[in-house]
Amino acid sequence: MNTDTIAPPSAKHRSPIPEHVPAELVREVDAYGLEGIEEGVHEAWKRVQQPDTPPLIWTPFTGGHWIATRGALIDEIYRSPERFSSRVIWVPREAGEAYEMVPTKMDPPEHTPYRKAIDKGLNLAQIRKVEGDIRAVAIELIEGFASKGHCDFAKDFANIFPVKVFLALADLPMEDAAKLNALAKEMTRPSGNTPEEQGLSLKTANAGFFEYVAPIIEARRGGTGTDLITQMVNSEINGAPMPEDKLLGLVSLLLLGGLDTVVNFLSFMMIYLARHPETVEEMIAEPVKLQRGVEEMFRRFAVVSDARYVVSDMEFFGTQLKAGDLVFLPTALHGLDDTQHENPMKVDLSRRNVSHSTFAQGPHRCAGMHLARLEVLVTLQEWLARIPRFSLKKGAAPIYHAGIVAAVENIPLVWKV
């Protein structure tokens, strides 16, 4: 969703405040149009997390929902599916109800066998087997522009590298990337100025994914290929073939996860490094710090924010929640929580006890985290080996977008050849 099309605050759709929500907990925070976003998505979320901000706040925007503002709550909610269900994980609610991908919208124990099916192709041992291929893709891209002395990092690397890697793992043609990227953006940053409009945008994009994967599933049923989709399609659930609707949801989720998250993470990370040459120098001087620093990067630049559905009335961190309420979980606010991390906006390669929810927690911990970690490590190693010193072009103004997955574009980098 382009920030130019976001309605001004006075024109945004506001939902009525429910009776059980105290007035002192209400804050006007729009998850798709954060105040101060021109300075950066993480900077804008950090503005929400002030010392006097309650652990749970209520916003009337995007259909009306709670927002968890501290790491302790985000961590506990993710780990507690019996109290905080995944049946609606998007805001606004209309978008969450239109979302049909599995197993992200399932709770244990129904969720468990589907998660095992995904893990079969994305576990650490499997990912290590393709490290050479992943590294070759990164090297080819970087060497394609290293001698020019400039690139648009988002356009020339981040939007290509993880997508090319993932489509190769799924045995899909790179020429399908543009279509799939457009669908992914409407899933994670659905357009529209009312909950109903955003719900319709997401429903249309979800249907687009299903339409794309249906013939692929059919073609690979009974196949013996080692690609991710063939493995998924021929997995059994509780001893029986996977139901058709769940297959559509599972394969679509694989594509959505592979096409929008690492893409944007890499771009946020590289903007920071371009502005902090001292951190880059530290990585070059001590390669071990570079390797250890990958987790610090994930802490600092979390891009996903999803929601959970309150199963029953309860008191949580001193706040009354009602069954059916939605709690939004900006994972950035766990990594940036200054009650858990000293000077959290700084990338500290020597930081100990790094805690974050960038990959979520509990049963829905990201299945693609091993691939993501490797892609980030490879990017840093191969980039710094060829372009050790770089900066943002003078006058550069990256364009930031908030949503279920935060995004950024327009990242002109320059360096001496």
Structural write-up:
The chain is of the alpha+beta class and 417 residues long. The chain contains 16 helices and 14 strands. Strands 1-2-10-7-3 form a five-stranded mixed beta sheet. β8 (314-316) and β9 (319-321) form a beta hairpin. The two termini are 36 Å apart. The relative contact order is 0.18. The model is unreliable at 1-10 (pLDDT under 50). Its EC number is 1.14.15.1. Keywords: Monooxygenase, Oxidoreductase.
Task: Considering the chains and any ligands shown, give keywords for the structure.
single chain; 417 residues; alpha+beta; Cytochrome p450; five-stranded mixed beta sheet; three-stranded antiparallel beta sheet; 16 helices; 14 strands; 46% helix; disordered N terminus; Cyt_P450_B; heme binding; oxidoreductase; Camphor 5-monooxygenase
CATH H-level name... which superfamily? Cytochrome P450
What is the CATH topology classification name? Cytochrome p450
General form = globular
Strand order of the largest sheet: 1-2-10-7-3
CATH class division: Mainly Alpha
Rg from Cα: 21 Å
Family: Belongs to the cytochrome P450 family.
GO molecular function, one term: heme binding
Keywords: Monooxygenase, Oxidoreductase
EC number: 1.14.15.1
